[in-house]
Design goal:
- The complex is a heterodimer of chains A (305) and B (297).
- By secondary structure, chain A is mostly helical.
- Chain A has 2 domains: 57 residues; 210 residues, MetI-like (MetI-like fold), CATH 1.10.3720.10.
- Helix content of chain A is 73%, strand content 0%.
- In chain A, α3 packs antiparallel against α10.
- Chain A starts with 7 loop residues before the first helix and ends with a helix.
- Chain B has 2 domains: 36 residues; 244 residues, MetI-like fold (Orthogonal Bundle), CATH 1.10.3720.
- In chain B, strands 1-2 form a two-stranded antiparallel ribbon.
- The longest helix of chain B is centred in the first third of the chain and has 35 residues.
- The chains are: A mainly alpha (305), B mainly alpha (297).
- The interface between A and B is large, with 90 and 91 residues.
């Protein structure tokens, strides 16, 4: 009885098969490599298309007025940086005022959002009380309601309170957990924390507030961070609220100032208008670069905008 | 009784800010808005009850209302599928075979983060102007482009393109969904020689259905609410020739330019009903095409 190992014909067959397999593997690898290369080429091209408008904006902001629409090149012949300094002072008030206003509104709103939303989320996620499920369902329903339905009565309400032309209509609702979305986000996170923590603390005589402040909040920094970043960006970019409640130029936030720029100077000072547009995007882009991971994970897990 | 209070007090204490907000900023205003929608109210004199007049006028005589509906529905019908298809296509390219995708992911997401800002709306108006960058590129291939923004026939498409540019967040959600599809399904299909297209229709689409559904509902509601970019691009009033008269812009004008608060409230309620109907339809239809993993056994 012959063993396979000593059969020359079989050896040859084996060698051939191995050679064919090697060729196939090489071919497959080459194909995969070609596929990857093709994908990278496509993705790089797509990235250029995606970023082109932003680069166009950046380049237009340092171009001389007569070059913005006549030259296709993204690289200006001369860098006209005084678009920024002139634009900064082109409106009756300097943009410093608008930035301070925006910073006040945004800063206070973010604090309000974090406090009030985490309060509500703590109640829903960790405390037991009668009517919890009912109120939870109500809260989820309000997620669906378009802002426009409450807009007019809210305006009438705030007008009667004498709050128009102040920041109160923009800030106070944030302290009353009006951005239900963040409550939802925090509930999701709080629920993942082990219950034993609360129970142990309760046995040790911790009050619910202490549990919230000393245990839940410190453990929820990622969720709080995500909420803080998104509320910062949304409130910074918010236009409808300021548009309705702020009429006095002294109180304008940056988006309102930009709109004023379009209406009053837009057709004569494109370069300056673009320069101010760029400055308004800078805080958002800085936040994005710094907190990219939190932002992307936040959207993937909750489906935020 | 005391036990009832001690048991419930902490919960309601923590809920208090939201409860106040719910009653004063949501429930109260919704009911007030419903009441106002049956009145004539100009903010100077007290609201005057007019019964169904606002609604009758809206549906029978207000041509701008129908125009606004037409513009908004056209936008939703074009922008939502376009954005979702972009998002899914890019997510699928990013999902397979590439190791370092975080840079691409960040680049593709960036426009979504900036997209609703006024700066981008200003930029968009210039990009699509007669002498803007888009026409400059088109003239390279010999096309003499129209004045996209000021031509009523093309103005809506500039906003659809703006929506497509911002496919970032559904893309991220699709990516997370694609990651959760078991890879051995594709390996098995590969061994059976199933062509790529059938792998897509038989494995990817059905297993991704819940995520598609989620994105569809979210993006549709979002599209109905589009406001600030349109407001800037259309000079605040739906120009040119009402071709950008989005529902929200019309509502804003009725309320805050003409102070027809009663009529605007009626418009708001119709919007609420439209969004509720769409969401309801999506949920009702979902049982025919969305199957959740854990339901099957």
């Amino acid at each position: 009885m012959k063993t396979n190992a000593t059969d020359p014909a079989f050896d040859r067959q084996l060698a051939e098969a191995a050679a064919i397999a090697a060729v196939m593997r090489q071919r497959r690898e080459a194909q995969a490599r070609r596929g990857r290369l093709l994908k990278h080429a496509f993705l790089i091209a797509a990235s250029c298309v995606m970023l082109y408008p932003l680069f166009w904006l950046l380049s237009a902001s340092v171009k001389p007025e007569n070059e913005i629409f006549t030259s296709l090149s993204l690289w200006p012949t001369v860098f006209q940086f005084d678009n920024y300094t002139k634009g900064w002072n082109a409106l009756p008030m300097s943009f410093s005022v608008f930035y301070i206003n925006s910073a006040i509104v945004t800063g206070l709103s973010v604090i309000g959002n974090l406090l009030s939303c985490s309060f509500a989320a703590y109640a829903f996620a960790r405390l037991r009380f009668n009517g919890r499920n009912f109120f939870f369902a109500l809260m989820m329903l309000t997620l669906m309601i378009p802002y426009h339905v409450v807009l007019i009565p809210q305006y009438v309400e705030f007008l009667k309170l004498g709050w128009v032309n102040t920041y109160l209509p923009l800030i106070v609702p944030k302290f009353l957990a009006s951005d239900v979305f963040f409550v939802f986000l925090m509930i999701q996170f709080f629920r993942q924390l082990p219950r034993e923590l609360d129970e142990a603390a309760e046995i040790d005589g911790c009050s619910p507030f202490k549990i919230y402040w000393r245990i839940i909040l410190p453990l929820s920094l990622p969720a709080m961070g995500t909420a803080a970043i998104f509320s910062f960006i949304w409130i910074w970019e918010d236009f409808l609220g300021p548009l309705i409640y702020l009429n006095d130029i002294k109180t304008f936030t940056v988006p309102l100032a930009l709109r004023l720029f379009v209406d009053s100077q837009g057709e004569s000072a494109f370069g300056q208008m673009f320069a101010m547009s760029v400055t308004s995007l800078v805080p958002v882009i800085i936040f994005f670069v710094l907190f990219q991971k939190l932002i992307i994970r936040g959207i993937a897990t909750t489906g935020m905008k | 009784m005391r036990r009832f209070i001690t048991r419930n007090a902490p919960g309601y204490t923590f809920l208090l800010p939201w409860l106040i907000g719910f009653f004063l900023l949501t429930l109260g205003p919704i009911l007030a808005s419903l009441y106002l929608s049956f009145t004539k109210y100009d903010m100077v004199s007290a609201p005057r009850w007019v019964g169904w007049d606002n609604y009758v006028y809206m549906f029978t005589r207000d041509r701008r209302f129908w125009k606004a509906l037409h513009v908004t529905f056209s936008y939703v019908a074009l922008a939502v599928p376009a954005r979702l298809i972009m998002a899914l296509a890019v997510a699928m390219i990013l999902d397979k075979g590439l190791r370092s995708i975080s840079l691409y992911r960040a680049i593709f997401y960036l426009p979504s983060l900036l997209g609703s800002s006024i700066a981008i709306a200003i930029l968009w108006r210039q990009l699509f102007a007669k002498d803007g960058a888009v026409n400059a590129v088109l003239s390279f291939v010999g096309i003499d482009g129209p004045s996209w923004i000021t031509d009523p026939n093309t103005s809506l498409y500039t906003l659809v393109v703006l929506a497509m540019w911002q496919f970032g967040s559904p893309m991220l959600i699709f990516l997370a969904g694609l990651r959760s599809i078991p890879k051995d399904l594709y390996e098995a299909a590969e061994i059976d020689g199933t062509p790529a297209w059938r792998q897509f229709t038989r494995i990817t689409l059905p297993l991704l259905a819940p995520v598609i559904f989620f994105n569809l509902v979210l993006q549709t509601i979002d599209a109905f609410k589009t406001f600030s970019s349109v407001f800037i691009i259309s000079h605040g009033n739906g120009a040119p020739a009402d071709s950008l008269l989005f529902y929200t812009v019309y509502l804003f004008n009725e309320a805050f330019s003409f102070f027809r608060m009663g009529y605007a409230s009626a418009l708001a309620w119709v919007l609420l009903v439209i969004i509720a109907v769409f969401t309801g339809l999506a949920f009702l239809s979902s049982k025919y095409w969305v199957h959740y993993e854990n339901e099957r056994d």
